[in-house]
Input
Amino acid sequence: MGSVPGARRHPGRPDRRLQRAALVLIGLGVMSVVAAGALLGYGAWQERQLTKQWDQIMSTIPPTVATAPPAQAIAQSARPAAPTAVPPAPIVTRTTKTPIAFGMRVPRIDYYSAVVEGVDVQHLAMGPGHYPSTAYPGRPGTVGVAAHNSYWLRFDQVKTGDQIVLETRYGTFTYRVTGSRIVSPDDKTVFSANSSENRLTLTTCWPLWAGAFANRRLAIFAEEVGGVA
Output
């Protein structure tokens, strides 16, 4: 006999397999989200620990050195005052064994963090990092700092004219934002500048909300104006 039109068909084995496959995929998705959240939380904790250690380091610096204008600060520090002098080596923290280059403050968005030396995956997992091939604060050239967008979610609020302050062991250097633009990941021109000018470039993945799926870069440009913010 033929099948009766409209009769209900009982679920077969293929349907159960699809259900199991769907459950597995959902489980993997949930685990991926949890793992990503855990890594982000751990990275944020490390960033806070490094910033606290940097605060402790800065508290041992004499005020006349830590807050002096650039030229005076360099002269008072242990580092030679010659323009070609090499900055002091980054301080390696006791707990994470991570080198800290300097501290960075953005008053407009109430942001403050230690900046580690290096921009590889290990360093950027802890917060912003200094490009070793770029200048140091107070030196001619461009200081390059990068961070994952998950750490800089509010940096699209940084506007032209805002201040960015870099705190070092040999002085505090203030930069004024001159603009920003969206660039491709391989655009290296964002770090090019006249060698006689002291500049700062911040880079992070764009869009900021896209996390690891961001395929462009936000570059923020600033010029040193000297003095203390």
